[in-house]
Amino acid sequence: MRDSLVGRYNIDALWLDATEPENDDLLGRMVCNGKYPGEMFRNAYPLIVNKAVYEGFRRDIDNKRALLFTRSAFPGIQRYGVATWSGDVGNDWETLKRQIVAGLGMSVCGLPWWTYDAGGFFRPSNQYTDKNYHERFLRWLQTSVYLPLMRVHGYMSNTEFWNYGEDVMRISRNALSLRYSLLPYIYSCAADVTFRGGTIMRPLVMDFATDTTALSLKYQYMFGRSLLVTPVLEPEINQMCVYLPETEGGWYDFRDNSYASNNGWYETGVSIENIPAFVRAGSIIPLSTELTTTSSLSGADFEIRIFNGTDGEFCLYEDNGNNYDYESGLFSEIKMKWNNKKRAFTIFDKRGKFGERREGRKIKVILVSKNGISEREILYDGYKTVVKF
Predict the structure, then answer these.
(1) Which one is the CATH code of 284-388: 2.60.40.1180, 2.30.30.90, 3.90.1170.20, 2.70.98.10?
(2) Does residue 88 have an active-site annotation?
(3) Which of 205 and 355 is assigned the larger pLDDT?
């Protein structure tokens, strides 16, 4: 693999399909130089094959992060730079529901990097003209904005957005743009996984353990610690009832920054343009409109949205984005705090060994409150800055 593929073509990531292995290929075979029956390794095979590829990648490819994408997983596989997906699934509404439950289950098992084939792997033969399928496809895609990985894939399909017509293309591109704008937030959540054992896709028990109604919900979940995702799981609706768990200061609608509700059941409007998502008060969410790679994160100007109602904090993480220097401490963190009583936002000194302090890094600070939006623009040079509202 090193000589014929990875090293030769400077490949960034490897897709290891069929690591079950497919068709029970270990049955009746002796492995490890004929020492053991293959059946002994059937369940753990995904762990072992990904271990082999990961260790080879790190040995033979100079200081480049390994990303392995595998169809099957086993406990402990997260240590090998592995993301897994749910395999060859259908595209109907019931399957989408089951995907969300499955992903949350994977997350609480300690496997934080998970996704699905947005739009389903098996698709209708008339997928490019079937308006009913287009609606399902968009709901799969819009939900995947808030998964650890966002991915589109389909069996014997040309899945580029433009194949489905102007409306699907426009709405899909908006979803993709939203995903990229969240990159500073997602990357910091990823650092929480690596350094503090966190997870990105979070069943509500993780953040609202005493809210019995929240614990009964199958399909709502947190994306990071700030965003509540409420997937649309049925066709042709313009209203849906969502549950906003009890949290100090209440919730804001992430789609338009409006104040939604203090807590409890809430009726929200639904359009084909997006799925509802909500932000808990006190959240600080960094966004960007110019990022396409993690490697460009540290040099980017960005926007910070603060959601008023209670105190909050966030730690923005930055590193090279494509190597293992962070294992030697070459990363930086920028801590941010919102003091609700004083209406003061503080960006603290940039800490860490990665990146020089940059003069004039443009940051737009937006305070979202019940009464509307207030904006400030600052130039951050890596030293403590206080913004008053």
Answers:
(1) 2.60.40.1180
(2) yes
(3) 205
